């Protein structure tokens, strides 16, 4: 059998292992090891297994992941998310669907200090869902909004998905972060517009709240000052080249701790839980990357990425047509896999093709994140939907999936706009120094 | 948990020192890298216990209890095999580091205890897969 055939068999076996509920990281490592041993030698595969594990855990570039993850968990423990929500509600609560619009903007704000979509959805879900229930908001609209808006966490910098993408493609993480900013703002506006239009057609779904005075609105802005300072310090520091990504994450985490202590919100118990949560998420992500690295060695020796690149590159299609096919593969993959797992699996395979087609990898990173966002809210494996189901157990899963549909449309429109106008993603990074 | 806090603290001290006092913490990057090994390797078993390693759940969850037991036994066996391999090969790698005297580039901290550490941290993961294997087999056998 040719190496390509072995590679294809390996991919199929790995997908079967995924379906059998073996953790994704371990399935990739196991198949990668076995495939490499078959195509090379068992001794070489032993070497790859041990070296890859040690080198990934020892990797300084990868230390950016725990840093930004723990920054997000400390930000939650410091009560930043609740104050963001209160401010957003004070400003837009009197509109139709005001609570849901406030949720969208609070998620966008929390996304500016947290790099995970599930963490953003879980954090805001715990705060926003009880409020929306209290004001008789429609369950489908409420849960769908939180599940979808949580995805803003991986588009608005910092973003764990963009960090991993940057490591896999050797692109500047600072530039990727900056690239996600304008699309993130655009998507937040689209999400808010979607809610507003839904409630305009059917006001009973999201009744308006009591109006607030301009004085109260102005006073509520104190709730976002700390977020702006933290975001400005971390992302601004990266943008201006003051910090490396790892340093920026550490400063952000320490900043979140300082805010929590100054606000007297961060007690010992919250600190312990935030550290534990950050560690477990970091462990999960680093194991996935390690598994993907071992699997990537198998893919490289099977020559599948290069054959695929040659085949797709030889199709009589313009570059955007090929990008469309790749996007479709990501979109379909997102139905069955978590966004992080999808990216670490597919990026090494398509990377040679992206390079040979001279595709702007910063712009493509943002496209990949948007596709990943669709993946975390679409059935059957919509991680954010499951998170929200855990917070609102009385709402049927089908209702939550139904609730994300308008946001999926908004995501697709945003994706098409970004494909038509790549400058939305590439304009700001052209000024970045890191 | 101490590992991840040390990473944040050392990087923070290094950055503040470098930017404000023009003083760098000696071996900061080495210490961050080694703390990361400790944090991630020793968190693996607990991450598995609390179900935080990403799995695709939608298919097996729909199957009858007995079929689930058969699949879970097979999957646990695969996991057990993988981690036995990891313990063995990381031990061999640690021994290689020890004989060649490999160390971190700045502070010259020997690397071999950390390779042994990953092997050691993988033992509880093996035990978890073993326990999962036994309970899955029990599910298959039980009427």
What string gives the helices and strands of chain B in order? HHHH
Strand content range of chain B? under 5%
Radius of gyration of chain A: 22 Å
Work out the helicity level of chain B.
over 70%
SS elements, strand count of chain A: 0
Instruction: Note the beta-strand portion of chain A.
Output: under 5%
Oligomer: heterodimer
Indicate the mean pLDDT of chain B: 92
Textual characterization of the structure:
The complex is a heterodimer of chains A (434) and B (143). The termini of chain A are far apart. In chain A, helix 15 crosses helix 17 (339-356). Chain A has helices at residues 3-19, 24-39, 42-58, 64-77, 80-92, 98-111, 117-134, 139-149, 160-169, 173-201, 214-220, 222-239, 245-262, 268-302, 304-313, 319-336, 339-356, 361-375, 383-391, 397-420, 423-426. With 434 residues, chain A is mainly alpha-helical. With 143 residues, chain B is mostly helical. Helices cover 75% and strands 0% of the residues of chain B. Chain B has four helices and no strands. Chain B is elongated. The chains are: A mainly alpha (434), B mainly alpha (143). The interface between A and B is large, with 57 and 54 residues.
Topology summary:
The complex is a heterodimer of chains A (about 425) and B (about 140).
Chain A: H1 3-19, H2 24-39, H3 42-58, H4 64-77, H5 80-92, H6 98-111, H7 117-134, H8 139-149, H9 160-169, H10 173-201, H11 214-220, H12 222-239, H13 245-262, H14 268-302, H15 304-313, H16 319-336, H17 339-356, H18 361-375, H19 383-391, H20 397-420, H21 423-426
Helix pairs in contact in A: 1-2, 1-14, 2-3, 2-14, 3-14, 4-13, 4-14, 5-6, 5-12, 6-7, 6-8, 6-10, 7-8, 7-19, 8-19, 8-20, 9-17, 9-18, 10-18, 10-20, 12-13, 14-17, 15-17, 16-17, 16-18, 17-18, 18-20
Chain B: H1 2-20, H2 28-49, H3 65-100, H4 112-141
């Amino acid at each position: 059998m040719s190496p390509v055939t072995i590679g294809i068999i390996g991919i199929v076996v790995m997908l079967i292992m995924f379906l059998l509920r073996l953790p994704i990281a371990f399935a990739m490592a196991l198949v990668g090891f076995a495939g490499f041993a078959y195509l090379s030698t068992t001794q070489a595969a032993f070497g790859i297994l041990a070296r890859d594990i040690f080198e990934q855990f020892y990797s300084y570039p990868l230390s950016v992941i725990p840093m930004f993850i723990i920054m997000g968990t400390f930000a939650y423990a410091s009560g930043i998310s609740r104050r963001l929500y209160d401010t957003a509600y004070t400003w837009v609560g009197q509109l139709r669907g005001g609570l849901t619009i406030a949720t969208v903007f609070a998620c966008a704000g929390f996304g500016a200090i947290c790099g995970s979509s599930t963490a953003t959805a879980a954090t805001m879900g715990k705060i926003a869902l009880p409020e929306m229930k209290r004001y008789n908001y429609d369950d489908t609209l409420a849960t769908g909004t939180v599940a979808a808006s949580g995805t803003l966490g991986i588009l608005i910098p910092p973003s764990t998905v963009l960090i991993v993408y940057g490591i896999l493609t050797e692109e500047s993480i600072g530039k990727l972060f900056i690239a996600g900013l304008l699309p993130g703002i655009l998507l937040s506006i689209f999400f808010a517009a979607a809610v507003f239009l839904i409630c305009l057609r059917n006001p009973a779904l999201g009744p308006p709240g009591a109006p607030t005075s301009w004085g109260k609105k102005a006073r509520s802005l104190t709730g976002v000052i700390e977020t702006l300072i933290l975001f400005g310090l971390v992302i601004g520091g990266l943008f201006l080249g003051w910090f490396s990504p790892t340093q920026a994450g550490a400063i952000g985490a320490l900043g979140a701790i300082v805010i929590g202590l100054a606000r007297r919100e961060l007690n010992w118990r919250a600190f312990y839980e935030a550290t534990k949560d950050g560690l477990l998420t970091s462990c999960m992500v680093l194991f996935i990357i390690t598994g993907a690295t071992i699997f990537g060695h198998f893919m490289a020796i099977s020559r599948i990425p290069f054959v695929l690149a040659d085949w797709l590159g030889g199709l009589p299609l313009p570059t955007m047509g090929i990008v469309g096919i790749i996007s479709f593969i990501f979109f379909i993959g997102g139905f069955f896999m978590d966004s992080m797992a999808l990216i670490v699996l597919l990026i090494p395979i398509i990377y040679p093709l992206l390079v040979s087609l001279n595709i702007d990898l910063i712009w493509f990173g943002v496209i990949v994140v948007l596709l990943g966002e669709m993946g975390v809210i679409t059935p059957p494996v919509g991680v954010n939907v499951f998170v929200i189901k855990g917070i609102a157990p009385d709402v049927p899963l089908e209702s939550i999936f139904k609730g994300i549909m308008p946001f999926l449309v908004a995501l697709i429109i945003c994706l098409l706009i970004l494909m038509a106008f790549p400058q939305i993603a590439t304009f700001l990074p052209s000024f970045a120094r890191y | 948990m101490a590992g991840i806090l040390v990473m944040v603290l050392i990087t923070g001290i290094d950055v503040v020192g470098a930017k404000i006092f023009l003083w760098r913490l000696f071996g900061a990057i080495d210490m961050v890298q080694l703390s990361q090994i400790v944090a991630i390797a020793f968190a693996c078993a607990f991450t598995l216990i609390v179900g935080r390693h990403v799995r695709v759940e939608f298919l097996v969850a729909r199957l009858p209890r007995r079929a689930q037991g058969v699949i879970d036994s097979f999957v646990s066996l695969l996991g057990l095999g993988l981690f036995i391999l990891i313990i063995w090969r990381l031990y061999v790698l640690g021994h290689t580091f020890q004989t060649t005297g490999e160390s971190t580039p700045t502070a010259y901290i020997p690397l071999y205890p950390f390779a042994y550490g990953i092997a050691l941290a993988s033992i509880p993961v093996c035990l978890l897969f073993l326990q999962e294997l036994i309970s899955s087999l029990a599910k298959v056998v039980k009427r």
